[in-house]
Specification:
alpha/beta, 718 residues, binds adenosine-5'-triphosphate, DNA binding, DNA 3'-5' helicase, binds magnesium ion
């Protein structure tokens, strides 16, 4: 029926209303950040329910994260009350995939109580298969196979769809074979991996027209948020399901497509009108989130991208007192963390709610400095979308090595590292050590020592344990001879732990190596290994209290769709942001995706966006100067204020940049005469970039980055 004027439609602008009231047929809402896309989706659902167009169970609504799904549910609840309770099909692609598969498990060769493997299980399984095939695991590591298969699954390709014996693929053309074997094995185990949640659900719908027809009848309305980041298999799913009612509404922003590296295809947006004939496109141009300065800065920045549809954005929030986007320099990342910590305390004193403050980093290793600083200051924080720095797998492993060296009785540490990297010490051996330890009331390392005197330990386990014990002994003897950072590095190198990740060709391995380097860097702030480990136990001891007010720390990738009054954006330096690996691997396209990430970052802010860069990074114990990010040069001066740091921050004010490159100041003229009016950071960039030739050579070894696949805890997100 015709829409009655109702309260939830108040205050919406005409385009938003149009998008909400156009219920029949395909609809694409294409609009920039903060224009109310998510709000349109929520209100649209409320409207469908309030007008009795569909039952809650007849609406399929897809969000990007589980968190977003919860928030959406809450918001709908506020509009329509308890009706929202009956919405079983509101969630991420993955949660909806699980639901589909549980209902029809037997149709894809599973039982409904199938298990969902986590990444570790997945890798272990692949290792077995690789070994069984007699493939050299050093050359063809399991993690590489995992990311290959993951990529295929994201593209909607089953084992049968892969060209046979394609030599480019794993194990000299045996990728497809292993993929088949892996899928067969999963079926035997009654298990699926994350990729299957999408791929098998697609297969189900494709191969069972009766099931598909059933869902065609069921889903009267389909709604999708963050559409620009759907991948091929998700897209195929949606297209298939939307053939029923044809009432599909997708909202997205091509400028916020940031998951290309994980298989997302921004082309899905461009294809929408072609694939859904008769589609209506609504554009929203008014931004309700940010101040004019923030919007102006973000719009100007993203305009440097070529591959974009182009959009207009404006705001009515013209407040003459609004802060400009602030750009500030720190001497190094430690000072950056200190200054941001001070600023947050200042905001708090002036009444800011910590929940309205976020720090958005490009790579997960950057979190360490902030976490340490907040612990020192006693400022509560939470890490969103992934583990806290010291809780990451590679950090825990490394810490376990350090602990067992300084504290021989630390059984937990010993157990963690005894077979990491793999040395052929199996569960049975570890159990035997435990049994001995318990029976004789001695720690595991003593158990090993004593058992090595007997014949009970044999074969590979015996050799490996002998080697490991000798290493631990040797490292322990260096505790006083070497500095603790040197020793730490030595331990990670000699144990084969660093090498394990170096040989790992998965997307997250470079980020883990970067985190390990950051760990060692962080140790320089302490006098001894013991001092450092004490600090760690204090940091680790903090309980995460989700209800309390806290600053949020997260990667830019995890920040999508969120908003905060104040946003801090540290680390805007060439190589880190834009990220070197994105540039190396994807060239211009990589740069543009980095720029979209910057756009996402700046547009999270409602009132204040503070961008920082460090002039120096400490890499392998030596200082190297860094170049401020090119994105800083792309910000419009009208909306930006370059903050002159006072002496409280060590006096690295603009004049210091002059001093920094003063002797080479003349050479600057060669590279662009008009630099006298440029803000300080630009001048700094030039003097550093051209005055100090060490940048390109200097960063070679330190250019690590990555952390590209840093959304560990968020795998269930789409
Ligand atoms: P993003 O691209 O970052 O996901 P979005 O387009 O989804 O942004 P929303 O999060 O829906 O934008 O809205 C941004 C902010 O503007 C929210 O706080 C929302 O409540 C507010 N907002 C949206 N529309 C209106 C409106 N018509 N009147 C007042 N506030 C609005
Ligand atoms: Mg949104």
């Amino acid at each position: 029926g015709a829409a009655r004027p109702v309260a939830y439609l108040d205050n919406l602008n005409p385009e938003q209303k149009d998008a909400i009231l156009t219920l029949d047929g395909p609809l694409l809402v294409l609009a920039g950040a903060g224009t109310g896309k998510t709000r349109v989706l929520t209100t649209r659902i409320a409207h469908i329910l309030a007008t009795g167009r569909a039952y809650p169970s007849q609406i399929l609504a897809v969000t990007f994260t589980n968190k977003a799904a919860r928030e959406m549910k809450e918001r709908i609840g506020k509009l329509v009350g308890s009706a929202v309770e009956g919405m079983p099909w509101l969630g991420t692609f993955h949660t909806i995939g699980v639901k589909l598969l549980r209902r029809h498990a037997e149709m894809v060769g599973l039982r409904s109580d199938f298990t969902i493997l986590d990444t570790d299980d997945q890798i272990r399984l692949m290792k077995q298969l690789i070994q069984a095939e007699g493939i050299d695991e050093k050359r063809w590591p399991a993690r590489q196979l995992a990311s290959l298969i993951d990529g295929w699954k994201n593209k909607g390709l089953g084992p049968k769809d892969i060209p046979e014996g394609d030599a480019r693929y794993f194990g000299n053309g045996r990728g497809r074979e292993l993929y088949t074997a892996y899928q067969d094995r999963l079926k035997v185990l009654n298990a699926v991996d994350f990729g299957d949640l999408l791929l098998e659900a697609l297969r189900l719908l494709r191969e069972h027209p009766d099931v598909l027809a059933d869902y065609h009848r069921r889903f009267r309305y389909i709604l999708v948020d963050e559409y620009q980041d759907t991948n091929v298999v998700q897209y195929m799913w949606l297209r298939l399901l939307a053939q029923g009612s044809k009432n599909i509404c997708c909202v997205g922003d091509d400028d916020q497509s940031i998951y290309g590296w994980r298989g997302a295809e921004v082309d899905n947006i461009l294809r929408f009108e072609k694939d859904f004939p008769g589609a209506k496109v609504v554009r929203l141009e008014r931004n309700y989130r940010s101040t004019a300065h923030i919007l102006g800065a973000a719009s100007h920045l993203i305009a440097h991208n070529e591959a974009r549809l182009g959009k207009t954005l404006f705001t009515d929030a013209v407040d003459p007192d609004a802060d400009k986007v602030r750009v500030a320099a720190a001497w190094d990342s430690e000072e950056e963390a200190r200054a941001i910590g001070d600023e947050i305390e200042r905001l708090q004193r002036h009444g800011s709610n910590l929940n309205e403050i976020a720090i958005l980093v490009r790579a997960s290793f950057q979190m360490r400095e902030f976490e340490d600083r907040f612990v020192t200051l006693g400022v509560p924080y939470r890490v969103i979308g992934g583990p806290r720095f010291y809780e990451r797998q590679e950090i825990r492993d490394a810490l376990a090595y350090f602990r067992i060296v300084s504290q021989p009785a630390d059984d937990l540490a010993f157990e963690r590292i005894v077979n990491t990297p793999r040395r052929g010490i199996g569960g049975a051996t570890v159990q035997m050590l435990h049994a001995y330890g318990r029976a004789n009331s001695v720690p595991l390392t003593d158990a090993v020592h004593n058992l090595l005197q007997t014949e009970e330990l044999r074969g590979k386990a015996r050799t490996s344990l002998t080697g490991l014990m000798a290493s631990i002994e040797r490292w322990r003897n260096q505790l006083d001879a070497l500095s603790h950072t040197e020793l730490a590095k030595m331990i990670l190198d000699e144990s084969g732990y660093t090498e394990m990740w170096q040989n790992d060709r998965s997307a997250e391995a470079p980020g883990r190596l970067e985190n390990l380097k950051e760990l060692i860097r962080s140790m320089q702030d302490f006098e001894s290994m013991t001092g450092f480990l004490e600090h760690i136990s204090l940091v680790m001891d903090r309980d995460a209290d989700d209800s309390a007010e806290a600053v949020s720390i997260m990667t830019l990738h995890s920040a999508k769709g969120l908003e905060f009054e104040t946003v801090f954006l540290p680390g805007w330096e060439e190589g880190l942001f834009p990220h070197q690996r994105a540039l190396d691997e994807s060239g211009r396209a990589g740069l543009e995706e980095e720029r979209r990430l910057a756009y996402v970052g700046v547009t999270r802010a409602k009132k204040r966006a503070n961008i920082w860069f460090a002039s120096n990074r400490r890499i392998h114990g030596s200082w190297q100067s860094s170049i401020p990010s090119r994105f800083l040069d792309e910000l419009p001066e009208a909306h930006v204020e370059v903050v002159e740091q006072g002496s409280s921050y060590g006096g690295y004010s603009r004049s210091n940049y002059g001093a920094y490159g003063a002797s080479r100041f003349d050479s600057q003229a060669t590279f662009g005469g008009s630099s006298y009016n440029t803000p300080g950071w630009k001048r700094a960039a030039k003097t550093q970039a051209f005055g100090d030739g060490s940048w390109s050579q200097g960063t070679g070894s330190g250019r690590t980055p990555s952390g590209v696949k840093m959304i560990e805890g968020e795998l269930i997100a789409r």
